[in-house]
Amino acid sequence: MGQIVVITGCADGMGLHVAKMLAAAGHSIAGFDVDAQGIASLKKELQETGGDHLIEALDITDRPAIRQFSDRVLARFGHVDTVLSNVGIGFFGPFEEVNLEKAMKCLEINVIGAAAIFQAFIPSMRQRRSGKLVAMSSLVGRIPFPFESIYSASKFAVTGMVLSLKYEVEPFGIQVALIEPAQVSTSFAAKIHVLPPENSVYRDRVRRFIERDNELIKKAPTPTYAAEKIVKIIEAGKPSLFNQIDFMSSFFLWLNQFLPRRMRDAILVNHMHIKV
User: What is the pTM of this model?
Assistant: First the structure.
């Protein structure tokens, strides 16, 4: 019997591929995204696939709308098996030059957005004593990368939030899991990679970082490959708490666990071509 799976940020990228793969496997999708055009396209595709799905255009920052969405989902399906918090935006730039108002938007979407969708469905899962909460974190949710201070902060926060709420919800039969990709070959990074002004003291290192990141993205897992991994986590009876998509993530996390900090820092700086 298929699951009822809630997915945020499902109009593009990994979320889109996950939604389509789950639907093809017989699961019912209740998903939303702020991208109305992308949502309309996904809705049409899922209708052609068959099955019972609820796909809407919705802003993750509209918390009353999130509550209303959860009410509609539960009224339609009766329960939810898994919630995948996938919605998120990137943020890039030297910390000294960061626009803090824009940084607030990143934290609002990435952190409070995940909190809002989890809060909306925990009560029904708790009453049913069953469910899975899966959050899209990142490699930088445990290993901070230069020029990604705000994005790293958001993913550290998501990781910390999930590790904390794990103790609270497990007694009610609710499982939690984190997904920690390093890079996936999407346009996600390209949308945020912007060089600082000509007079910025960080410009040269940022340029080298971007060039190196672009090289790595070309060799990174495809969204389809990443989605296949995520679907396995959703379908698992007992998913692992920490889940990596690719070897790069696992390797860097292993180094982070065992190597002295000075050595880890040297490896990271050299790996990203930003040695002074």
Answer: 0.94
- Give the contacts of 97 (CB within 8 A, at least 6 positions apart): 196, 200, 202
Q: What is the pLDDT of residues 190-246, one digit of tens each?
A: 678 899 999 999 999 999 999 999 888 888 888 899 999 999 999 999 999 999 988
Amino acid at the residue 126: R
**Which contiguous run of DSSP H or E holds residue 83?**
strand 82-85
Provide the greatest CA pair distance for the chain. Answer: 60
Q: What domains are there in the chain, each with its CATH number?
A: 4-271 (3.40.50.720)
Q: Which helix (H) or strand (E) holds 208?
A: helix 203-218
User: What is the residue type of 174?
Assistant: I
Interatomic CA distance for residues 129 and 271, integer angstroms: 45
CA 205 – CA 192 distance, rounded (Å): 16
